[in-house]
Structure formats: C-alpha cells, structure tokens
Amino acid sequence: MxxxxxxxxxxxxxxxTWQAMKNLTQSRGAETPDEIWCLEHPPVYTQGQAGRxxxxxxPGNIPIVQVDRGGQVTYHGPGQLVVYLMMDVxxxxxxxxxxxxxxxxxxxxVLADLGxxxxxxxxxxxxxxxxxxxxxxxxxxRRGCSFHGLALNVNMNMEPFSRINPCGYxxxxxxxxxxxxxxxxxxxxxxxxxxxxxxxxxxxxxTVLQTSETCPLPMQTGCAQ
Length: 225
Hints:
By secondary structure, the protein is α/β, with parallel strands linked by helices. The chain has helices at 14-27, 89-92, 96-113, 186-200; strands at 4-11, 35-40, 44-47, 64-66, 73-76, 80-88, 119-121, 124-129, 132-142, 145-153, 206-209. It has one domain (4-221): 2-Layer Sandwich (BirA Bifunctional Protein, domain 2). Helix content is 23%, strand content 30%. The strands form two sheets. Strands 7-8-9-10-6-2-1-11 form an eight-stranded mixed β-sheet, with helices on both faces. It has a three-stranded mixed β-sheet with strand order 4-3-5, with no helix packed on it. The chain is globular, with a radius of gyration of 16 Å.
C-alpha cells in the first residue's frame, strides 16, 4: 500500500473544497494514493442529502449549502477541525460501517490522550462526551471511494449550533474540546488525529503536505500561504 497523503489546508471555503473532493474522486484510478485533508471552514451550514428544512431554525447571515453527504444539517466554522477522507474503500477492504468505526474510534483515542472521556453511539453516528456531541460524521461513496468525513469541535464559537437542530436532533447539546482543555491547540489536534487515522487504516507511513505544496484547491482560497 502506498503512503497516505495528509494535507494541511488551513482555512478554505466550503464550496471550493467540496468541488475539489469531487474532482479527486472522479479522476482517481486504481493506483491513486488515498488522502486525508485537515482544514477549517469559514462559517457555513451544510445540509445532507436527506436533510429537512425544518431543522434549520434561524440561519441569519450564515450561508446554507445543500451537499451530497449523508446526514442532516450541521455547522462548520473557524476553530472546528474538519477532516476529509478520500479513500479507495474497496481497495482497502473496508465497508462504510467499518470506515465509520475507524473514524469514531480514532476521535475517541485522540480525545482520551487529552484526558477527555468520549464514546460513539450505536444509534447515531458521531462522538459524544456524556450527552453532548463533540464530533459529527458525514460520508459519501462514489465509484468505491469515500469523500467528506468528520468535524471535531475544538475551539470555536458554538452559538451558531443554537440556530439549527444539530444533525436533525432538536435540543441536542453540543460541546468542544476547549470546554475540557482550555489551552487546546487545534493544529496539534489535527496532527494527532491524522496520525491516529493513518495507523487505524493500516498505513505504515504518511506523507504530510502543507498548504503551499500541490494544493488541490484554487489558489485564491488560501492554499498559497
């Protein structure tokens, strides 16, 4: 198996990133390396394929993007770690459920290293600290390959979650790592989670590329930093 490519993409607009994910998934071949993208988004609500309009309560001036991942509505914003997994799931011998398990267990392991006790739930994808959700998942498979991924709340403004029913659940409490680890560093969390995912997916090594190195996004989005 070739090395996993891990890209650190800084802050990038949602729509540009989504298009880049689709482009990679459409163009990849049997030998195309798998990739993990770590980034943050400007404020945006994303509504999954089965999303229902009534779960968006008062979006205000935050844009809403209808997307092709699973799940309902969620919020992305600065201080939230978003990790997209462009995996050849068939080549890796994984199913959707097993990939979700890998993602959830990797998040739980990274949080445990920070002293935060978290767990997945069999009835609702994602990771929770007690009753509060700290990480959301949403995936799409096309041509045997995955894209989209996870959003882990690290050190962000949580107010926009109050304007929606997060993941379609009215009154679902949301939390972030900063609630438990006040001095949390999002870049360190990203590095730890990428390394954990790499190991869990069976990669012996990963090639880490920063924003200026063969960026998959349009240069005006910030990847030229």
